[in-house]
C-alpha cells in the first residue's frame, strides 16, 4: 500500500542536474523476476512494507521500513525495522528497531521512511500521521551513524491531506525536491503526487502538483510511493499500486515537475516500487502485506541499461524446460518415458539436487511460467491431454490436474497486467486460455484461429502487447493484442520461410522484438526497427537446416541465437560490431531447456537420450564444456 523506500546510490543522484532540454526514452520499462532478499519473520510471520535502502560510508547497506506481524494492521505500525547487509542482495541481519512512535511529537503511526545522506548527516523523512487526516504530518529525524535517530526539534516539516504520506527526496539542480502522495484538496479529491522544494532539507516551499490521476477519494488511491529518477535525460515517475496491490506504473517526461497519465512508459509487478543504481545496474524492490519480506529485481528502462534479460518472451514447449523460482533458484523439468522428472538448484547460482519423479503424462512436452506472486506453473502435453501442476505457495506443489486435450505445440506468455496466458496449437488451429486475474483462476479454452498443427512463439512488445507468431508449412502468421492485456487484432500473413520447423521470439534491450525461424534451408530472421516499430523483411541468417531455435539475451544485453539441427547445434551472437559467424555448440538434441541464473549467466540442459548441461562461466562470458547431468531418457 505505502512506499517501499529508497533504492538508489546517493552520489549518483545528489549531482543530478535538470537538463535544459531533456530527451525522452523509447522502450518500455520492465523488470526481471523478483528474488527474495530478506524475510524478517521468526517464530511468526512479519511483513516489511514501505522501506528504504541507504549505503553508509563504509559500504554497508541499511534497510529501514514499516514492519508488523501478519495480518496487516496499518494503524498499529509504530516502529521502523532496521537490517544491515554487506551487499544489496544480502545476507541481511536483523537489528533493533530504528525508531518508535512518539505521541508527544504528534505521531499516530510510523509510515514510509526515506533516508538520504547529506555530508556526514543522514536524514530520515517519514509520515507520522496525526488526528486529522486532512493535516497529516511529514516528519524528519537525523542521525550520524544510522543507529541513533533524533527528531527535528521544530516538529513536523509540514502537514497536508488527505492522509499525506510517502515522502521521497532527491536533488534536482541546485535544490532538494520532495515528492509525496496526497489529494487535490485537503479532505479528498483527485489522487495526486505533490511536490515541494527546499535548500536546507528543513524548510519547504508550498506544494504544487507533479502528477494528477483521474481517480478520486479521501485517502489510499493509486499515487502512492512516488519515486523519480533521471535516465538518459528522461525523467521517470514510479507510482502505485496500480492494476492491483502488486503493480506499479511508470511514466516518462522531459520535466521532473510535470507528469501526465498519457506518458505511461511501463508497468512493473511490484508493490510501491523504488529504484537503485548500484554496481552499474538498475534494480527495483518489492514488499508489502503478505509478501514475505523484501524482494529485488533487475530493472530495464528499454534503452539497454539492464544487464539481465526481462521475461518478455516464452519458448514453445520442449521435452526439457528451465524456470526460475521465487528466490532465484532454477528448476529443471524433463519429460521422461514414464513421467516428468525434476531437479532444482540447492542455492542460487549453485549446485543442483538429484533428479526426482514428478508424475504427469509419459513422454511429455513441457512449458512453464512463474506467476506474479512467485508460484510456478508447469504444463505437460502427452498421452492425449495437457496436464497442469501449479504451486499453491512458492516451493509447494499441488497435484496434477487435467487442463485440456493434447497440443501439437504450446507456449505460456504473460500479459502486461501479470496474467498468464497459454496458447496451444492443434488439428483445427490455435486455442488459448488465460488467468482471469494475476495469479488467479483460468478461463476455459477459446478458439484463437491461425493455422492447424502450427509451431508458435510469443513475445511482448515495448507497449506491453503480446505478439503471437505461428507457422505451418512455409507460411508464418502473426496476431497481436490491440492494447496491452486487452483484445486482439486478426491474424495476418507474416511472410514465408521454406519448411518452417520452429520459431523463437525475444525482446532486445531497446524494446524491439527479434524473431528467428528455423527452416529447411537454415534460419531466417526478422526484427523490429525500434520499440514497437515496423518489422524488417525476412533475411537469411544461416545455421543448420530444420533446426529448433532459441534467442537468448546475455547479461550485457547482447543477443545470442542457438539452432539445433538433427546432427549439430550451432550458435552465433552479437559481438559489438554485428553478428559473429556460426560456431558449433554441440551435437543435435531433441530436448532443450534454457534458463538464466540469478547472476545473469545462461544455463542449458539438452540432449537426445541422455541429458547434459552447459553454462556460462561468467555473465555474458564463455561456456563450460558439456557435462552429463543424469535424469530421464529424452526421446
From TrEMBL:
Residues 1-22 form the signal peptide. The keyword Hydrolase applies. Residues 47-241 form the Glycosyl hydrolase family 32 N-terminal domain. Residues 522-531 have a biased composition (Polar residues). CDD domains: PLL_lectin. GO terms for molecular function: hydrolase activity, acting on glycosyl bonds. The keyword Signal applies. Residues 519-543 are annotated as: Disordered. SUPFAM superfamilies: Arabinanase/levansucrase/invertase (SSF75005), Fucose-specific lectin (SSF89372). Residues 317-634 form the PLL-like beta propeller domain. Belongs to the glycosyl hydrolase 32 family. This is Glycosyl hydrolase family 32.
Amino acid at each position: 500500500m505505502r512506499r517501499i523506500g529508497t533504492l538508489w546510490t546517493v552520489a549518483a543522484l545528489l549531482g543530478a542536474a535538470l537538463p535544459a532540454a531533456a530527451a525522452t526514452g523509447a522502450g518500455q520499462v520492465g523488470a526481471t523476476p523478483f528474488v527474495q532478499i530478506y524475510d524478517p519473520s521468526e517464530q511468526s510471520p512479519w511483513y516489511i512494507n514501505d522501506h528504504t535502502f541507504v549505503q553508509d560510508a563504509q559500504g554497508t547497506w541499511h534497510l529501514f521500513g514499516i514492519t508488523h506481524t501478519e495480518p496487516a494492521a496499518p494503524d498499529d505500525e509504530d516502529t521502523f525495522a532496521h537490517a544491515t547487509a554487506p551487499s544489496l542482495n544480502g545476507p541481511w541481519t536483523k537489528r533493533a528497531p530504528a525508531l518508535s512512535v512518539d505521541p508527544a511529537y504528534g505521531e499516530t503511526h510510523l509510515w514510509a521512511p526515506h533516508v538520504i545522506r547529506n555530508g556526514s548527516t543522514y536524514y530520515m523523512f517519514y509520515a507520522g500521521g496525526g488526528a486529522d487526516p486532512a493535516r497529516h504530518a511529514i516528519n524528519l529525524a537525523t542521525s550520524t551513524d544510522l543507529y541513533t535517530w533524533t527528531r527535528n526539534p521544530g516538529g513536523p516539516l509540514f502537514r497536508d491531506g488527505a492522509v499525506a504520506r510517502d515522502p521521497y527526496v532527491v536533488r534536482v539542480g541546485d535544490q532538494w525536491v520532495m515528492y509525496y502522495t496526497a489529494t487535490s484538496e485537503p479532505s479528498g479529491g483527485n489522487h495526486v503526487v505533490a511536490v515541494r522544494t527546499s535548500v536546507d532539507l528543513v524548510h519547504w516551499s508550498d506544494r504544487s502538483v507533479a502528477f494528477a490521476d483521474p481517480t478520486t477519494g479521501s485517502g489510499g488511491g493509486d499515487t502512492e510511493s512516488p519515486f523519480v529518477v533521471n535516465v538518459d535525460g528522461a525523467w521517470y515517475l514510479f507510482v502505485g499500486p496500480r492494476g492491483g496491490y502488486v503493480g506499479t506504473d511508470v511514466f516518462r517526461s522531459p520535466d521532473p515537475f510535470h507528469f501526465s497519465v498519457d506518458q505511461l512508459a511501463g508497468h512493473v509487478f511490484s508493490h510501491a516500487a523504488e529504484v537503485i543504481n548500484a554496481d552499474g545496474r538498475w534494480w527495483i524492490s518489492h514488499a508489502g502485506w503478505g509478501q514475505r519480506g523484501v524482494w529485488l529485481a533487475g530493472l530495464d528502462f528499454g534503452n539497454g541499461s539492464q544487464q539481465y534479460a526481462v521475461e518478455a518472451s516464452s519458448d514453445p514447449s520442449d521435452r526439457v524446460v528451465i524456470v526460475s523460482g521465487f528466490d532465484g533458484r532454477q528448476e529443471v523439468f524433463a519429460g521422461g518415458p514414464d513421467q516428468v522428472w525434476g531437479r532444482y538448484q540447492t542455492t542460487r547460482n549453485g549446485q543442483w539436487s538429484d533428479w526426482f519423479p514428478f508424475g504427469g503424462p509419459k513422454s511429455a512436452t513441457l512449458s512453464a511460467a512463474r506467476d506474479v506472486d512467485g508460484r510456478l506453473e508447469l504444463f505437460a502435453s502427452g498421452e492425449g491431454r495437457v496436464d497442469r501442476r501449479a504451486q499453491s505457495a512458492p516451493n509447494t506443489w499441488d497435484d496434477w490436474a487435467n487442463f485440456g486435450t493434447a497440443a501439437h505445440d504450446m507456449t505460456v506468455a504473460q500479459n502486461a497486467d501479470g496474467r498468464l496466458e497459454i496458447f496451444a496449437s492443434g488439428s483445427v488451429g490455435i486455442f488459448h486460455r488465460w488467468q482471469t486475474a494475476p495469479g488467479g483462476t483460468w478461463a476455459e479454452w477459446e478458439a484463437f484461429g491461425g493455422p492447424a498443427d502450427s509451431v508458435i512463439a510469443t513475445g511482448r512488445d515495448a507497449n506491453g502487447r503480446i505478439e503471437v507468431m505461428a507457422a505451418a508449412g512455409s507460411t508464418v502468421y502473426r496476431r497481436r493484442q490491440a492494447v496491452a492485456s486487452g483484445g486482439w487484432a486478426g491474424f495476418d500473413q507474416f511472410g514465408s520461410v521454406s519448411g518452417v520447423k520452429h520459431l523463437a521470439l525475444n525482446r532486445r534491450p531497446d524494446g524491439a522484438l527479434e524473431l528467428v525461424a528455423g527452416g529447411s534451408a537454415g534460419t531466417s530472421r526478422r526484427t523490429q526497427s525500434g520499440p514497437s516499430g515496423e518489422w524488417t523483411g525476412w533475411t537469411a541468417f544461416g545455421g543448420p537446416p530444420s533446426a529448433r531455435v532459441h534467442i537468448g539475451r546475455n547479461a550485457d544485453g547482447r543477443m545470442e541465437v542457438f539452432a539445433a539441427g538433427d546432427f549439430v547445434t550451432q550458435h552465433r551472437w552479437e559481438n559489438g560490431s554485428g553478428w559473429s559467424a556460426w560456431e558449433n555448440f554441440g551435437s543435435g538434441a531433441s530436448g532443450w531447456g534454457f534458463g538464466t541464473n540469478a547472476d545473469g549467466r545462461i544455463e542449458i540442459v539438452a540432449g537426445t537420450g541422455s541429458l547434459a548441461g552447459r553454462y556460462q562461466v561468467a555473465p555474458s562470458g564463455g561456456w563450460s564444456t558439456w557435462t552429463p547431468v543424469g535424469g530421464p531418457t529424452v526421446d
